[in-house]
Q: What sequence folds into this?
């Protein structure tokens, strides 16, 4: 079968499944999610074998990227628990809100409905396959998933478990389908078929997004790179600042919500930078600083212009001393990727200005940028972190996979 015919088959099946999923009962969707949690736990050894094949083929990956490819017992337990949590969440579909009686006698409100079919392209991280599948099921959508090529064996094994769980609950297997080839031509076909796909969710770096932006004939919700900042203000609790910035940079290096750039107000630079530099040095984090940073941090190397806009996904951080909150905000809005940025401060007006003026999907006060995550925000799981301003912004959970339609209830009223 040609790739085009294969992708059309997936699309046709997804479209049919979406109709059934939109009408599926909450009980059936929850049964599928609980079956999925159970089957994931039972399939531990088989999944470990599939994942070992992926890891063996990806020996050249850096440590952080290998970490995200791993589907170990802890990751499996977490995704299984995530399915149970999503099952326990209220079903958003069919909810009617805001009903108001109009002078004409009609009542007008809004009903939450699934988007239909979403296509998702994402990195080599097998747990995302389950997070996307479980959110698709609960939100009554169908989806076509195209995971990173290094994770193909793990994803195929996971997709089979998802299909079996859907079937067990009397729901269509095609509600969640995985593209079974790593051929990137499949991505081109997925993003150019509005008859089968209602929205595309690309989750990845600049190369992916450039292609999608140039070729997509389907609406896109971009989940792009994270050049996240932590800004240490002039008035600050230094112990808290060290703890928060350390976590934001070093808790994990590969995620898009890790801090890549540290800005420090000049009034605190001499007190703060040597302290955080000592932490980074012990953890092997390379520091690339402005001239004022170099004077305070002997181990740092000179940053070049490109560093301010670079997402390292590695133990590297750029550091700049700024004169004011205004300079920090302007720097973030110019060089950041509008993903997640944080201020560390004890000054309330400054915190409020940062929240209002930094143009990012998540803005934080005295918290690690690593918190930008659907699970941490109470969404149960996440499709990813949207760097678009619409249809959804920041961590995308169940509601982000739905839209509202108008509902009008009458008793024979006619328009005069
Ligand atoms: N905002 C968010 O929610 C998230 C953002 N990210 C971002 O993703 C990036 C890291 O992940 P990484 O794996 O390097 O991302 P990539 O963009 O390299 O890959 C992600 C996915 O896109 C595919 N892809 C990439 N380029 C193309 C192309 N030109 N045509 C078709 N498919 C393509 C990859 O396929 P293949 O396997 O063939 O390379 C993979 O499936 C970082 O920038 C990170 O910030 C990561 C996670 C979440
Ligand atoms: N929301 C996720 C981050 C998602 C992400 O960036 O993933 P990845 O780039 O694959 O490490 C988390 O904090 O775990």
A:
């Amino acid at each position: 079968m040609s790739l085009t015919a294969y992708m059309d088959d997936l699309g046709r099946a997804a479209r049919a499944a979406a109709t059934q999923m939109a009408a599926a009962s909450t009980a059936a969707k929850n049964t599928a999610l609980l079956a999925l949690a159970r089957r994931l736990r039972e399939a531990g050894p088989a999944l470990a074998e599939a994942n070992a094949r992926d890891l063996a083929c990806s020996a050249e990956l850096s440590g952080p990227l290998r970490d995200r490819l791993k589907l170990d017992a802890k990751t499996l337990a977490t995704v299984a628990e995530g399915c149970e949590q999503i099952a326990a969440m209220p079903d958003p579909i069919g909810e009617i809100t805001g009903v108001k009686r109009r002078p004409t006698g009609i009542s007008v409100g809004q009903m939450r409905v699934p988007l239909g079919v979403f296509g998702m392209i994402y990195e080599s991280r097998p747990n995302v396959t389950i997070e996307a599948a479980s959110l698709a099921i609960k939100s009554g959508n169908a989806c076509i998933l195209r995971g990173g090529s290094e994770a193909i064996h793990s994803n195929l094994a996971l997709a089979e478990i998802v299909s079996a769980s859907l079937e067990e609950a009397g729901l269509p297997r095609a509600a969640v389908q995985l593209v079974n080839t790593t051929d990137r031509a499949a991505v081109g076909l997925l993003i150019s078929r509005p008859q089968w796909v209602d929205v595309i969710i690309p989750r990845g770096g600049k190369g992916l997004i450039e292609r999608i932006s140039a070729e997509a004939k389907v609406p896109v919700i971009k989940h792009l790179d994270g050049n996240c900042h932590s800004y240490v203000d002039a008035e600050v609790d230094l112990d808290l600042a060290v703890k928060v910035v350390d976590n934001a940079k070093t808790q994990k290096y590969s995620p898009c919500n890790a801090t890549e750039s540290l800005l420090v107000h000049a009034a605190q630079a001499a007190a703060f930078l040597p302290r955080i530099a000592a932490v980074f040095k012990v953890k092997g984090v390379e520091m690339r600083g402005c001239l004022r940073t170099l004077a305070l941090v002997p181990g740092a190397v000179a940053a070049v212009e490109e560093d301010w806009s670079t997402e390292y996904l590695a133990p590297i951080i750029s550091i700049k001393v700024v004169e004011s909150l205004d300079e920090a905000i302007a720097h973030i809005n110019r060089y950041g990727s509008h993903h997640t940025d944080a201020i560390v401060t004890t000054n309330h007006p400054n915190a409020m200005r940062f929240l209002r003026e930094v143009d990012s999907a998540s803005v934080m006060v005295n918290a690690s940028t690593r918190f930008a995550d659907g699970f941490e925000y109470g969404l149960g799981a996440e499709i990813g972190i949207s760097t678009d301003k619409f249809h959804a912004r920041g961590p995308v959970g169940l509601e982000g996979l739905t839209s509202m339609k108008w509902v009008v209830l009458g008793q024979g009223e006619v328009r005069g």
